[in-house]
Please model this.
Amino acid sequence: MNPKSYTIRNKAGMSITVSSLGGIVQSLLVPDRNGKLGDVVLGYPKATQHHDNGYMNALIGRVGNRISKGGFTLDGTFYPLANNSKDCALHGGEIGFDQKIWDVRTFAGADGPSIELTLLSPDGDEGYPGNLFVRVVYTLMEDCAWRIDYMAVTDKPTVVNLTQHAYFNLSGGKDKDLCGHYVQVNASRFTEHLKGNIPSGKVLPVEGTSLDLRQPTSFCECLHGAKKDAYLKKVGGGFDHNYVLDRIAPGLSQAVVLEHPESGRQMEVWTTEPCVQVYTANFLSPKDKGKFGYGFDPHAGVCFETQHAPDSPNQVGFPSIRLDPGQVYRSTTIYAFDVVDVCEG
Ligand code: GLA
Model:
């Protein structure tokens, strides 16, 4: 089946175009301080090019990020998984949710125009147990926020950790890298990882390291300048780290603020998840020409993958991602754009 594209638009003119292939965001148009729309996600002319280019802007499941040890054990049964990336299972497996054709419908939601994506992942899909029904709703709120509501139910005990792999660059195609952006991540701890980006199990303070983004920080200084230390050199020369969020209460909590002063665009990430993977597109390659007419180099954009910690099924100290029959998996993340005088709310 060929993928189809769907577009919704809010009253401020913000719009999102989404493919039935992987729920891939093909464009996200957001006004700048002069009300001029710009596309704030990287992308390629065809949705089918996105998987091989870093899972670009796609829904990720059943389990985002990495699972080590060739699989995981649940209730005494070992479930082997394909090691589709180096020595681990990454982003759902060989054919994860980003490569599936989802059922899609658009509707007028209570909070704004919405796109509903549903998928039935059969028992044994990519090695995971249980028939898993997944529903994801993208909503464009009137205050210029892109809200994602995830829901899943299963008929056997299983594991679930869904996320979205959007690559943001708030310049709207003008800047070829993240210089010009400032980032703040509300996390005073991160999960240490070993070779292959597999967590050691230790949760360490960011204080005193280049990973400390608790104050607005220039991406340029981190990626190219003074702030670069061993942590940033290790993995592709940039951020690819799981931050444990400092949350005050359950529910939606502000995780990230990304600012691009030149355009006047600012994006806040709010989530119900405990963690966010900050990934500065370290493995992108310019081999394929993107939708702005040029190929994307490392650091062309940044992902804020809200999630439970990587390798949770094999890490006893991390919050569980187990889902049982009768339970409902729910997760919400909001990418809220704040553009002075343009977006109401
Ligand atoms: C995640 C991972 C990265 C990389 C990208 C996809 O963000 O943490 O290491 O695998 O996905 O290229």
The helical segments are 219-224, 230-234. The pocket of alpha-D-galactopyranose is lined by residues 54-55, 65, 90, 197, 240, 277, 279, 283, 303, 305 (CB under 6 Å). The first strand starts at residue 5 and ends at 9. The two ends are 40 Å apart (CA to CA).
